[in-house]
Design a protein that fits this description.
Low-confidence stretches: none
CATH class: Alpha Beta
CATH architecture: 3-Layer(aba) Sandwich
CATH topology: Rossmann fold
Mean pLDDT: 91
Number of domains: 1
Number of helices: 9
Shape: globular
Structural class: alpha/beta
Order of helices and strands: HHHEEEEHEHEHHHHEE
Helix content: 25-40%
CATH superfamily: Vaccinia Virus protein VP39
Length: 249
């Protein structure tokens, strides 16, 4: 992994915004919803766990007693296994059926061959072992160092089942109006204020960018049912993120 990227994803502000997101953070509307989802799978058992594409491992503290192993591209600090860069995904130097849990948080969109990655995750899991996987539905391009694809819930379910996973839970994260406001908030810094369009949007721009913490707290209250969705998924057609809890079969 290029040094600037590896440094960024291990930096304290990056990790804090994911583990302890606070109103006013630039991506609070989504990262706080992702944290809600991850907190729902917190596990204190002594698991053999692989953080597969770990980055800075922002959610490590949710698994306090795990025998925690980390895999990522060369250059990532403190990893146990290197993922060889390139389009041909090479197996990790680990015996099959070594782990109870594979954690894959915001990784799959950066993988050149998602099926190869999922096959390797399945190989590494013991029978009945779980994988917790989150990725993006709609999100801006963010190379780390590359960004290749997005999913719908049906598309990711297809990819998981054809790689021999059984689905236990499906999540949609930051949905509906909350999703639209998140996208607008991310776009506003690129809108020129000294244009007719920018002037018309000035009050909303001011609230989103200048009183961001106040704006975020209001969104939490107004759109509390659009944060971490596990039921009636068909009603939530616009979503920033997806999550699946699956088992090896």
């Amino acid at each position: 992994m290029p040094a600037p990227v590896a440094t960024l994803i291990s930096a304290d502000p990056y990790l804090r915004e994911r583990l302890e997101p606070a109103p006013g953070d630039s991506m609070y509307l989504h990262l706080s919803d992702l944290k809600l989802a991850m907190a729902s799978v917190e596990d204190s058992r002594p698991l053999d766990l692989l953080d597969f594409g770990c980055g800075g491992s922002p959610y490590r503290s949710l698994f306090p007693n795990a025998h925690y192993k980390r895999a990522d591209l060369p250059g990532t600090e403190g990893i146990d296994y290197e993922i060889k860069p390139g389009n041909a995904f090479e197996p990790l130097p680990v015996e099959s059926a070594s782990f109870d849990l594979v954690l894959s948080s915001q990784v799959l969109e950066h993988v050149p061959d998602p099926d190869a990655y999922l096959r390797e995750a399945r190989r590494l899991l013991r029978p009945g072992g779980r994988m917790i996987i989150t990725t993006h539905g709609i999100f801006e391009d963010h190379g780390c160092p590359y960004d290749f694809q997005r999913w719908t819930d049906a598309g990711l379910a297809r990819d998981l089942t054809r790689n021999h996973f059984e689905i236990d839970e499906v999540w949609k994260l930051t949905t509906g109006t909350r999703a639209a406001l998140f996208l607008l908030e991310q776009a506003f810094p690129k809108v020129r204020a000294r244009t007719l369009f920018g002037a018309c949007l000035w009050p909303l721009r001011y609230a989103m960018l200048k009183r961001r913490a106040w704006w975020h707290r209001g969104c939490d209250t107004a759109f509390s049912t659009n944060r971490f969705v596990k039921a009636d998924l068909a009603k939530h057609r616009l979503y920033i993120g997806l999550g699946f809890v699956v088992r090896a079969v």
